[in-house]
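Here we describe the complex-level prediction in full. Unlike the single-chain runs in Section 2.1, the three entities below were treated as one system.
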Amino acid sequence: MTTQTMERPSQTVGGVEKVLEIEDLKTHFFTRDGVVRAVDGVSYHVLKGETLGVVGESGCGKSVTALSVLRLIAKPGRIVQGKIKMSGRNLLDLSDEEMRTIRGNDVSMIFQEPMTSLNPVLTLGRQISETIMLHQGLNKKDAWDKSIEMLKLVRIPEAERRVTEYPFQMSGGMRQRVMIAMALSCNPKVLLADEPTTALDVTIQAQILHLMLELKEKTGTAIVLITHDLGVVAETCQRVVVMYAGKKVEEATADELFERPLHPYTVGLMKSIPRLDRAATTDHPGRLMEIPGMVPSLKNMPPGCAFAPRCSFATERCRREIPAFEMKASGHYAACFNSDKVAEIHHG
Amino acid sequence: MAEASGTHGRTPLLEVNGLKKHFPIRKGILSRVSGYVYAVDGVSFSIGHGETLGLVGESGCGKSTVGKAILKLLEPTAGEVYLKGKKISDLGPLEMRPHRRDMQVIFQDPYSSLNPRMSAGDIVGEPMYNYGLAFGKEKEEKTRQLFARVGLRAEHMLKYPHEFSGGQRQRLGIARALAVNPSLIIGDEPVSALDVSVQAQVINLMMDLQQEFNLSYLFVAHDLAVVEHISHRVAVMYLGKIVEMTDKKSLFTSPQHPYTEALLSAVPIPSPKMKRKRIILTGDVPSPIRPPPGCRFHTRCPYVMDHCKVVEPPMQEVQAGHFVACHLRQPGQALAAAAASNPALTAPAH
Amino acid sequence: MTATTPAVIDIVEPPKPLGRIIYEFARRNPTVIFGSGLLLAMVTIAVFAPFFAPGDPLALAPARRLRPPSETYWFGTDMFGRDVYTRTIYGARISLIVGICVSALSTVVGLAIGLLSGYVRIVDAVIMRIMDGLMAIPGILLAIAMMALTKASVENVIIAITIPEIPRVVRLVRGVVLQIREQPYIEAAQSIGTRFHRVLLKHILPNVMAPIIVQATYICAAAVLIEAGLSFLGAGTPPNIPSWGNIMAEGRTFFQIAFWIILFPGLFLSVTVLAINLLGDGLRDALDPRLARRM
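The structure predicted for the assembly as a whole is:
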C-alpha cells in the first residue's frame, strides 16, 4: 500500500570489468526446409553491475543468443561459431559437467512464461533449495532456510508459509518473483532475463522491474534484459543493443539511443509505438509511422542489408552490401551506410 | 447514465446498462453451485456512431467478458444492452441473428481465431454467405475488394491461415468483420499478440477504416498507450466494475481515480530523460470470486479511508462527461485538488 | 485518407506441381507409403483373386488331402484336399471386406453421434451413458448371441464387430470436439451468424477428421483380427466361405502333422494387420497439425 518513487538508474556504472562477452556468435538451426540463421554474428558484452537491454521483435535472435550463452540450444540448432567469454574462460569450450556448474551459479536465466517455467509438482521450497544445494553444497535444512530468505528478499509475504506451496497456488507476478529468487539464489554474475514481464499486467510489471533493479543494487549482478518493449528499456537499462534478423544493428547508451537513433530500424520502432508522453500534448491521434513489410524469412535472407527492403533510406549499395557494424559517434555503433542521413532527419 | 457524448443528441449506437455476468462455480458430485466468479458486476456505458470507446484494465477485470456478453456469445446474468435503440439482451439465439450483422468482433489470437481448414477467401466470405448477401462470383468479387481494403493480395484468397503471418491473419480477421458492413466492431485485444511494428500497421488500418465507414469500436485492451492512441473515450475497469470513464484527453492528463493514476504511472515510457513519480501498487489483484467489500480497490489504494472499506462508491460525474467511482472525488469539487496532487506526467526535461 | 498499400515483401509462391507434392510427401512419410503399398497389394490380391488363384477354393479332393506344400499345391492341401493357397487368397476378400466395412460403418456412425454429443451439452449426458453401456458388451458374446438368434453370415459378423467399436469412436470424436468447441474460431463463426448445422459441418468436422482417420485404420486392423478370432471360435464367418479364421480353425486339429494349413493364412493375416497399422501410424504423423504449421 505504499507509494514508491522509482528513479531511473544513473548513467555511471560501477567499474569497467566485463562479466560476460559474446564474440561473433552464430547459432543456426538446420531444418528440413533450410538453414535458419537465428543468430548470425552477434557480439556484445555486459559490464559488472550494469543493465544491458537487448531489443528486437520476435525472430530477431535475442532469445536464442541468451540460450546460446547457457548452451541450451537443442537440435536441430547448433552453435556453429563464436566465443562466449566469462571469467577468462570460453563457455563454448567447457564440458557438460563444467557447464552445469556455470548454469544457475555464474549465469542465471529467467523466462517469459512464469506459468510454465516452474515445476508444477514440486513445492517452491524444493525448487529453490535444489539450486542452492547443487551449487553451494549446503545441506537440506540450510538450503531450505536460505530459500525462505530468498523469498523474503523478493518481497513475498508470509514467506515461511509460501515456501511449502506449489506454483499453481500463486499468481503470475508471484511466480515471476519466485523465479527471480531462484535465479539470484547463488549470486550469479549475470542474470539473463528473457522478456520477464511481457506476460504480466502493467502494474505487476512495474513491481517486478523495480524489484529486479533493487536486487541488482544489493547483489551487484549484471542484468541482460531482453525485451521488445522500448519503454521498459528506457526505464531500466544503461546501455542498449538493437537486434534485427539475427544481427546487431545498433548499440549505444540508453540516453544516446533514444535521443539520436542512427539506424532506420530503431527510428522506425520508436516512431511506430503509441506513446503516452506525446499524448499529453496532442489532440489528434494522427497515424503511427509504419515500417512497411515484414521481417524477412531467416531461411531466405536478401543479399545486402537485411532491413533494406523495408527501409526508406535504402540505396543500391544497401541492397548489395551488408553494412559493417561500426562506431558512428562516441560509444554509439550502428550497421548502416546512411546513419548521417538518419541523424539529420530524425529529431530525437 | 447514457450521456450523449459524440452523438449530438442521436440515440447512441450501443447502450449498456448495469451489465452483469456471474459464472457459477460448481463443486461436488452433484455439481452444486458453491460460489460465483463475479466477472462483470454492473457495467454501464454507451458508444456513439463513429466513436471508439477504449475499455482498459488488467487481467481478470472482466473487460473481455463485457465484450462477449454484449455480443451474446455469453448470456448476461443481468442488465440491458441496446443496439441502435433496440433491446437485444433478452433475445434468443435465433432472434439475435439479424442483429449480429451490426456487431462484429475481432479476436486477440490471430492463430486460433481462424478455422485452420478453411481457405482465407472462404473465411472472409462466410459472413456474406450466412446472411445471403452474395453468392458465387459476386461473393468472390466482394471478398477480393475486402482483401484489397485490408492490404492483402487477391492471390492470398486460396491460401490457408497457417501460411500467413500474425499481422496478416489479423487483417483477415478484420476483413471478415467488415464483410457484412457492421456499425460496431468489438476488438478484444486485437493487437496484443502482434509485434510492435505490425501493431502500428493494424492500428492505422483500423483507424482508416473507422474514418471510411464511420465505424464504432469497443476497443478492449490492457495496453494503455495503444488505447490512448485509438480511442475517443476511455473506461477503466477494475474487478468487474468501471472505476473511471471520460474522454481520452481528460483521462490521461487528469485522472481522478487512484487506480487510473497507478495504472498510468506504471506504463513504461520510452524516454529515458522523463522524470516521473511512479506509484507502485503492492499486492496482487483480489480474486473475482471474493471481491473486497466496499470499494473493490481499497485493498491496494494509497489513499484508502475507513469509509472505503465499507461503502461502495457510486459512479458520479465530477466534471462534464467525466465519471469516477471514488469517495475522494465529489461532483464539481476536488478536481483542482486532484490535478494538483496528480503524479502523472510532467513535461520532459528537454 | 487512403488505405496503405500492401506490404512490399509479400511473396506469393507459385503452386507446386502435384508430382512434386507427392514426392515430398513420400520422402517425409515413408511409413505411409510402405504401409499403403502393402495394403494395396493385399487389396489387389483380394479383388483379383481368380487371377491369382484360378482354382476353386471349395473344390474337394479327399484323395490328395494333407499334402505338404509342393509345386502343384503351393501352400499344400487341407484335410479335405482343398488347395490351401486358393483358399487363402480368397480368404483375403472376407478379411478385407469385414475390416473396411466395420471401419467405415463405425467411423460414420461414431462421427455423427460424437459430433452431436460434443457440441450439444444436453445430448451429451444421455449419449455417453448409452455408450458406456455398449462398450461393456464384449464383441464375441454379441456375435454368438446374434448367430444364435439369426444365422451365421458375413453381415452379422460385421454388425457384431461394429457395435462395440462405435463407443470408442464416439469417445474420441467427443473429446476432440470438446477441445475444438473452445477455440476462438468457433466463437467467431457464431458471431458472424453461422447456423448450427454449418458450424458442425464446416467448422468442427474438418478439424476432427485427422485423428478420426487414424483411428479408422486402427479399427480396420482390429476388425480383421477380431473376425479371424470369431471365425476361429466358430462364431464368425460361416464355414462354407473361406476366411483366414475359418481356415485356421479347421487346421487346428491337424496342426502337428499339417502345420501349413495354419501357417499361411496366419502369415497373410499378420502382414495385412501390419500394413494397416503402418498406414495408421504414418497417417498420424503426416496429419499432425504441428507439421502443417511449419510452413
